Amino acid sequence: MSDHESTYVPKTAVERWMDTRLPIIRFGMDYANLPTPKNLNYWWTFGGILAICLMTQIITGIVLAMHYTPHVDMAFASVERIMRDVNGGWLIRYVHANGASMFFIAVYLHMLRGLYYGSYKAPREMIWIVGCVIFFLMIATAFLGYVLPWGQMSFWGAEVITNLIGAIPVVGEPILIWLRGGPAIDNATLNRFFSLHYLLPFVIAGCVVLHLWALHAAGQNNPVGILIPKDRAKKDMLPFHPYFTVKDGFAIILFLILFAVFVFYNPNALGHADNYIPANPLQTPAHIVPEWYMLPFYAILRAIPDKFGGVVAMFAAIGVLFVLPWLDTSKVRSMRYRPTMKTFFIIFLFVCFGLGWCGAQLPDAPVIGSFKTFTLIDGDLNSYLWLTRFLTAYYFVFFLVLMPVIGLREKPLPIPATISEPVLPSTAAEKA
């Protein structure tokens, strides 16, 4: 609740001295006692999971940086030395590498939950926007980190992605030279990427503080999607601790079990085998792909025949999320009570998975075996590319057309007056 007053009372002289100078204890206690809607389900536990992921990435990243050598002649060998000669180095590296994937799994589920339950609507726009900033910084950090092992996929992935920047008119070439540190990817590029990869997680941590600050000011959303009036606060709200810390803790344990399965039993399942081959600028891999969590955006990039148009579409796919609070015209937050929009949202989920699959395919791959049905402008048969374009079109139509139009025309289901009351009158009558 935005009007939540502090209930913290310093009990010792040290606490009182600290509270008048740097009330960090008060901030922590106020967050622990923050009134929270009592009907939050397990989809709301991914915030805590993401905090654990961020801390894990920062701690393991600092340890790895102590042993990594950002030089094109020694980077690959230093990573192998970490795996073989550093005590526990294999574990630190596998936790860091798989931790990036776990981070993105959690953030995608966190964002989809916010999208489904309308957590971006007023007065929570800034919570959503800061979250989108964090998401963008995560993508940048992950890309920079992907280059550091200096394997074949690292080098050629950097070659492809940085070349995209050069497609921007007027300013593209100067930015490209600055980012690479020269006309080609070389030692200066690796040093820049290492520096930025080390820095950005701390920027993300700062944005997380802003995210929590905005959450503290605007209050939590809930599955019903209604604002809780002051006179219902005592009935509909519970303190965050211990009720939701226990719930978050249980979800974190389950998530860590999944994390451990990848780290200890299949640590390279989410990576690419070519990255265990030292980078060779003279030998191009048969298929250059980014990590799995960037595949949907990579598919959107390849769906547009024009290079600059593909770059615009790829960044627009992220940029549209920033203006989402103003694209959704519905007065009802939760899609639980919006059956039409819920249907299109389910289709949207399949589209996102489809884009990820398309991003992993070869540029000339058909959809099913050798069966090819569509003809491209240049005469080549490629049903996969047309599928990618169709999915890309739906991605943008969902945000730019369906959300504004359906929000105005859809007739939502009845919404309960409070989160404690049932929707159906018959159920209410039975209870009475």
TrEMBL record:
The keyword Protein biosynthesis does not apply. The keyword Transmembrane applies. It is found in: Membrane. Binds 2 heme groups non-covalently. It is a multi-pass membrane protein. InterPro entries: Cyt_b/b6_C, Cyt_b/b6_C_sf, Cyt_b/b6_N, Cytb/b6-like_sf, Cytochrome_b, Cytochrome_b_C_euk/bac, Cytochrome_b_N_euk/bac, Di-haem_cyt_TM. Gene3D superfamilies: Cytochrome Bc1 Complex, Chain C. Keywords: Electron transport, Heme, Iron, Membrane, Metal-binding, Respiratory chain, Transmembrane, Transmembrane helix, Transport. Its cofactor is heme b. Residues 230-417 form the Cytochrome b/b6 C-terminal region profile domain. Residues 14-224 form the Cytochrome b/b6 N-terminal region profile domain. The main subunits of complex b-c1 are: cytochrome b, cytochrome c1 and the Rieske protein. Belongs to the cytochrome b family. Component of the ubiquinol-cytochrome c reductase complex (complex III or cytochrome b-c1 complex), which is a respiratory chain that generates an electrochemical potential coupled to ATP synthesis. This is Cytochrome b. It comes from Brevundimonas olei.
